[in-house]
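Progress against Task 2.4 (sequence-to-structure conversion) is shown through the following example record, which the project officer requested during the mid-term review.
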Amino acid sequence: MMPITRVGNQTVAILSRNKVAGYFVPKSALDIIELELASTVQVTAFIEFKLAKIGHVIDYLDDK
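Structure tokens generated for the chain above:
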């Protein structure tokens, strides 16, 4: 097993009992992105059209 400090610019998976628990992604692997504030209309549209498609996930997570 290689120490995490020696992997360089590679993504590293963190395992717990042979299941992925998380990833370390080097900063060099990410693009520089610009964020912009969403308008009320955009947020409302997202909630009405996209959020409804994952309602079952929200229901599942509600009691967690």
